[in-house]
Write a structure and sequence with these properties.
Layout: E1 2-6, H1 11-22, E2 26-31, E3 50-54, E4 67-70, H2 77-82, H3 84-105, E5 108-114, H4 141-161, E6 165-170, E7 173-174, H5 185-195, E8 199-202, E9 208-210, E10 212-213, H6 214-226, E11 234-237, E12 242-244, H7 245-256, E13 262-265, H8 280-286, H9 294-307
Parallel strand pairs: 1-2, 1-4, 2-3, 4-5, 5-6, 6-11, 7-10, 8-13
Antiparallel strand pairs: 9-12
Helix pairs in contact: 1-6, 3-4, 5-7, 5-9, 7-9
The structure holds uridine-5'-diphosphate (UDP).
Length: about 300
């Protein structure tokens, strides 16, 4: 099977490319490297099953493929704040062009959507039927609303053209290949703890998140690409072990044996208070379950940061 992965040089995309190639699929990895990195796909370069195309996913492409996985987008609040217009373009025009590739090839389409479509949720845990609470003009709107548009466009292609699509709403994911300057909480806390610097907790640290290790997510994505029962569905994907940001800081300190202090900084505008996925649909449709314990996952990221060149 030949698969187009947009955003294939990014954190999650590169792990998906690894998995697809290791299962014997041919992969076309498209990335403009605005947040992706060539080092993420260095192990695949030269493999006859893998081709890297340096291009912006917001532009049209012509390609023969059996599956399209559309992941291209900045995904950290720091990145999508800095690249707000690019984020909106790749999730609107980019989704359109990726959908067109899928439509012309009668290929199955996987949209990497996000828990951010739920905004600052008034319901917890969040189930797929919940329509969310999003500020359309706040600093996160470029990502949240663009992903909501991407979902609406994908749903329209399903209705109008009978496209076979699956929408995955991905919750906080972490793992090796997150960038040092990514700005998200896991790399920030780990790097601060390793360096013995104060750990920057935004707000009072009582806001919650649920963290999924990247291998678990990629297993779910791989199943979603191959499972007929997933077609036409919107599925949450993540880990449902919820914790406060302060609890995460403690876990990171424990694992690294760090004596770092905690320093409190202002909570970014529209930062969701709570986030935890309901995973019943993923379990039922994909027979999938997140398996990696938080501590195991954090340890693997610590090791990776210690080995990876700064
Ligand atoms: N956060 C924090 N310190 C940091 C980075 C993030 O306290 O150095 C908080 C952030 O305010 C949010 C949570 O950690 O409540 C998760 O933030 P992240 O940027 O990882 O992802 P989000 O879930 O907000 O998209």
């Amino acid at each position: 099977m030949k698969v187009l992965v947009t955003g294939g040089a990014g954190f999650i995309g590169s792990h998906l490319c690894d998995r697809l190639v290791s299962e014997g699929h041919d992969v076309v990895c498209l990335d403009n490297l605005c947040t992706g990195e060539l080092s993420n796909i260095a192990q695949l370069q030269g493999n006859p099953r893998f081709r890297f195309v340096l291009a912006d996913a917001a532009l049209p492409i012509t390609l023969e493929v059996d599956r399209v996985a559309h992941l291209a987008s900045p995904a950290s609040p720091v990145d999508y704040g800095r690249l707000a217009v690019e984020t909106m373009m790749v999730n609107s025009l980019g989704t359109y062009h990726a959908l067109e590739v899928a439509r012309k090839n009668k290929a199955r389409f996987l949209l990497a959507s996000t828990s951010e479509v739920y905004g600052d949720p008034l319901e917890s845990p969040q189930e797929e039927e919940y329509n969310g609470n999003v500020n359309p003009i706040g600093p996160r709107a470029c990502y949240d609303e663009a992903k909501r548009f991407a979902e609406a466009l994908t749903s329209s292609y399903q209705r109008i053209y009978g496209l076979h699509a699956v929408i995955l709403r991905i919750f906080n994911t972490f793992g090796p290949r997150m960038r040092r300057e990514d700005g998200r909480v896991v790399p920030n806390f780990i790097l601060q703890a390793i360096a013995g610097q104060p750990i920057t907790v935004y707000g009072d640290g009582t806001q919650t998140r649920s963290f999924c290790y990247v291998d678990d997510l990629v297993e779910g994505m791989y199943r979603a690409l191959h499972t007929d029962a997933a077609v036409g569905e919107v599925i949450n994907m993540g880990n449902d072990e919820e914790m406060t940001v302060l609890e995460l800081a403690d876990r990171v300190k424990e694992i690294t044996g760090s004596g770092s202090s905690i320093t409190y900084q202002p909570l970014p505008e529209d930062d969701p208070r709570k986030r935890r996925p309901r995973l019943e649909k993923a379990r039922a449709l994909l027979g999938w379950e997140p398996e990696v314990e938080l501590e195991d996952g954090l340890r693997r990221v610590v090791e990776w940061f210690q080995k990876a060149p700064a």
